[in-house]
Amino acid sequence: MNTTRVEVRLVELLTREGLWLCTAESCTGGLIAHRITEVPGASACFLGGAVAYADALKQSLLGVSETALLASGAVSEAVAREMAEGARDQFRGDLSIAVTGIAGPGGGTPEKPVGLVYTAVAWHSGCDVLRYEFSGTRDEIKTQTADAALEMLWERVQ
Prior knowledge:
Elements: H1 6-17, E1 21-25, H2 31-37, E2 46-51, H3 55-62, H4 66-72, H5 77-90, E3 95-101, E4 116-123, E5 126-133, H6 138-157
Parallel strand pairs: 1-2, 1-3
Antiparallel strand pairs: 3-4, 4-5
Helix pairs in contact: 1-6
């Protein structure tokens, strides 16, 4: 198993392939972008991203539809998909990562508990979304979310 941090492997691979990445983050508050930009040379493959915490910003910056927000809520497969596709399109990236979820400690419901997260990876011809239920403190949930999103992207591009 490769023990090199996933963000290092991603920067190396995306740079080698000439691919550009962008992010759309809600519950992680920029942690994914931070981890990518901690890698020397990330400027060769990382365009940037948006921390769209408020629904209004998800709509205005990423093009998330009011329909998706009203029908499914901000923490949903539909919104994660629209965030990823919106980031890819708005920032003109080859790939994008998006995350939306409930990091806690409050804000959960029986239908959408603390730790519920959706991660999405969009590319030129599609988008995958995965659902997770993480546990732990707010910081632990944010870290688990960033780990899952970066691994999801790695699986897509390798």
